[in-house]
Amino acid sequence: MILIFDALVTNWAALLAIVVISYGAHHLLTARRKHYPPGPAASLLIGNLMQMHGDHTEILFKEWAAKFGDIVYIRILNRPMVILSDLQATRDLLEKRSSIYSDRPRFVLFSELMGWHSASTHVRYGPRFRKHRRFIQQIFNQRAAMAFHPLQERETLVLLENLIQDPDAFTKHFKRFAASTIFSITYGHSITSLDDTFLKLVEDATALTVASGSPAATIVDFFPALRHIPTWAPFAGFKRQAIETRKAVDKMMNVPFDMVKKEMRAGSQVRPCFTSTLLEMHCEPNKGGGGSGSEDEQDIKGAAGTLYAAAEDTTVAVMQTFLLAMTWHPDVFAKAQEEVDTLLGGGAGVAARLPTLEDRGALPYLECVLKEVLRWNPPVPLGMPHRVMEDDVYRGYHIPMGTTVVANIFAILHSCDQPDVFRPERHEAVSPLPDPREVVFGFGRRICPGRHFAESSVWCMMANIVATLIVSRTAEDSETSGVPELKVTPGFVRHPKPFACTIRPRSPAFAALIQEAKLHQEI
Q1: What is the per-residue pLDDT for 342?
Q2: Distance between terminal CA atoms of the chain?
């Protein structure tokens, strides 16, 4: 048995070596001399693979941009990649030439092994992508998203109450807010507890997905043939991981979707939601859709599942960054609080009411705080990769068909004076800097369709935290002078590393105002 196992290992290792050499040789034999953008020198077979070191690729790409220019060309094995670190170049390609830059790279692990082919963020550009986009735009366009303001304000009151009762669990409270708002819209279900079954499903699926690696960055993405190897074989760890992840993702998407269908078929009182509305519009009326194989039904399920996957983790990351910034910069928090007090008539006593989304235009400094939070620590620093669908030439550089194109959002937003310093004032008056709100949600036809909803959710939480709470360093941290360095977790989404802070109501009167507003919402 040992000899047989050794032979299998040797054969699989030899097979992998042959695949690597074949891909490298194919690239060398078929590549014509083109004027590609500049970039770091690549090795013969593996390209720039060994140079992709460290946990924060966005920082490495920013360093390459400083050395080679804002348009950098690299090769990962046989796959070309262009990294854009300039806003103008990014808009020229991903927006002005969106007809050929709106495809996605081949996410073998995600789309084929995990079964996310029906989720709109992973649909290749074409009729099906436009169909999913249309589904989501019906609910989340800027005008339609205003209908969700009462929901966002109601869930914000629950957030404030939870922060007062259990301030140390602020991250969990942000997760509950994100889950409850999106689940209410998508499936008509409110999440009132951290122990909610649906919240647990999402957390399990998210954790396994993050552990699987970033899209277009796993070994099977570069060697698609490896998806056929058996799960027991060497180098098949990615496949075993994908199988477990797929089970969790399928459960996350199927359980709430099937709940809505069951209620519709039973004639139960179903709260109008994204899923029920689309099922009634595109499938059998009042019966929760056609058969499970219906393409429309599968597309609706995929679009619904995508809504949560795209919103939860990024919303939490932004709110963690906001809370950290307010903890480290009490002067900024005090200035924002003074602005809110002036509008609402609060201060030493208590305001007559809490801020609502209708007040947004009257709080310009808070808007600067939101912009700076997004600029200082963009939640998705490299966005989602694009793929060019035909050969292109830009600024005299050849960009071959099939190239993965990445916009380094982190580099674009950190191209300013003292980029690591949190300073909302940089966005006051007429600022020459790009508006982070127009950068962090992506570009062109792949821009996040839920951006208006996501942005208003974050603003509503920020405004009410500023209005009612005191956020400060802990007693131990207060003894440390200066502002610490921002440290973030590695991964597709940039979260601040765990930190401690003190959260308490400004006074008993403010705590009472929250309870009064919450009671009024329930009437």
Answers
A1: 93
A2: 72
